[in-house]
Amino acid sequence: MSREQQAVALARKAFETGRSKPLEYRIYQLKSLQRLFIERQKDVSDAIKKDLNKSEVGTQLYETLGLEGEISLAIRKLKDWAAPRPVEKNLLTISDTVYIQPEPLGVVLIIGAWNYPWAVTIQPLIGAIAAGNAAVVKPSEVCVHTAKVMEELLPLYIDKELYPVVTGGVPETQELLRQRFDHIFYTGNSMVGKVIMEAAAKNLTPVTLELGGKSPCYIDKDCDISVACRRVAWGKYTNCGQTCIAPDYILCEPSIQNRVIEEVKKAIKEFYTDDPKTCPDYGRIINQRHFKRIMAMLEDSTIAVGGENDESDCYIAPTVLRDVKPEAKVMQEEIFGPLLPILTIGSLDEAIKFVNKREKPLALYIFSQDNKVINKMRDETSSGGLLANDCLVHYSVSSLPFGGVGNSGMGCYHGKFSFDQLSHLRACLIKQLKMEGVNSMRYPPHTPKKLGWARFFILKTVDLGWLGRMALLAIMVVAAAVVLQNYLL
């Protein structure tokens, strides 16, 4: 039996003991996980520094702070999330108990990504634990040091049988995908997403795919361009552009292109000094393969700002490209790096057409002081999320679902959405062995009169208080007697 098979079998066996289901045990595991980020923050930060050149403060700000918040929310709200959820009834079920009961799915496979290796791996794990599942955790092998630390630390803080960590590369992932899971949660690119979905289909395993794409950023000529470009520069160059919801390219009218370039340039200097290479808050490309991929995108575009690079250090300066054509190399795939192309368009309508001709993005950004412009972009496009007058921050709002649409993914998570995504929402109806007369309308022989009664009882929905329910129940008893009398006759 392979290491991957053993991990899955161990998780399945542990889940079948039932110990992951009590709310007290789920909360205990979540609190233990929370301690990890308090007690071992330096280990987490040191590994990410080696992998992505993130500072310790940057690691907390973009990786672990959000996780601590998600864990606190889950602990605080778990009792409510897991409670039976009453639903609206029709007259036929007015005296019955009808509700939705969230229940664990079973064993979940979580395949993380390398760009925010803790945030995008542990956040779904929080949902899996909260929902009462077991979970096999597969961190990205691209972040070598972080994967090692995750493999070492998680078993020290949470149940190592219920939540085993499997490290390794493509062969190990392929072996995991050959096993049967009850849900697969993958964060990464659409090409691998298709492989995940194909593997899952063999067992009819549901999937959550958190993918990416080219997230557009429309800047209206009448907005505060200085503030807009400052926020765009922050969103683009954070983590050296290796963010799935980074603004991928700018759409603006030709009349403001030069101003946009100058304002982005000013923001780069403000954030990362005159020499970003020496700035502790500016990251690095994850490896040389991605460095070469990003540099190849520059071949047929004009550099307006930046462009400096050092392959030995996987360094690419914050870069702005001007007058980019739709057919340019940089526009053919998600950039996932610190290149910011500017494409000029003639109007808002033209920008909308440009966006709609391409795959639906994970995020869509609009900078405008005019709500009509914002609403028009919202109503006439589709994207995983939409954010006006800022970048990235919608990811931090736990009450908003985070996820893609179409090519940018399926399913969503964060907060209660994580719990629901990794739960089976079981429909429950509990009847009494009484009032059989009401049921006579459904029994053969079928008659027009019975159909008339059925239409009345089934098509009427009710939302009554206690007194209303009692009154209606009395009416139903009388109606049942009438129906029964007619049936007997």
Topology, please?
Elements: H1 3-16, H2 23-39, H3 41-52, H4 56-82, E1 85-86, E2 89-90, E3 97-104, E4 107-111, H5 119-130, E5 134-138, H6 144-157, H7 170-177, E6 183-187, H8 190-201, E7 207-210, E8 216-219, H9 225-237, E9 249-252, H10 257-272, H11 288-296, E10 302-305, E11 309-310, E12 315-316, E13 319-322, E14 339-344, H12 348-356, E15 363-367, H13 371-379, E16 385-388, E17 409-410, H14 416-421, E18 423-430, H15 436-439, H16 448-459, E19 461-462, H17 466-488
Parallel strand pairs: 4-5, 4-6, 6-7, 8-9, 8-15, 9-14, 13-14, 15-16
Antiparallel strand pairs: 1-3, 2-19, 3-18, 7-17, 10-13, 11-12
Keyword list:
about 500 residues; alpha/beta; seven-stranded mixed sheet; 17 helices; 19 strands; about 15% strand
Explain what you see:
Helix 8 links the parallel strand 6 and strand 7. By secondary structure, the chain is α/β, with parallel strands linked by helices. Strands 10-13-14-9-8-15-16 form a 7-stranded mixed β-sheet, sandwiched between helices. A 5-stranded mixed β-sheet has the order 5-4-6-7-17, with helices on both faces. A 3-stranded antiparallel β-sheet has the order 1-3-18. Helix content is about 45%, strand content about 15%. It contains 17 helices and 19 strands. The N and C termini lie far apart (about 70 Å). Helix 3 packs antiparallel against helix 6.
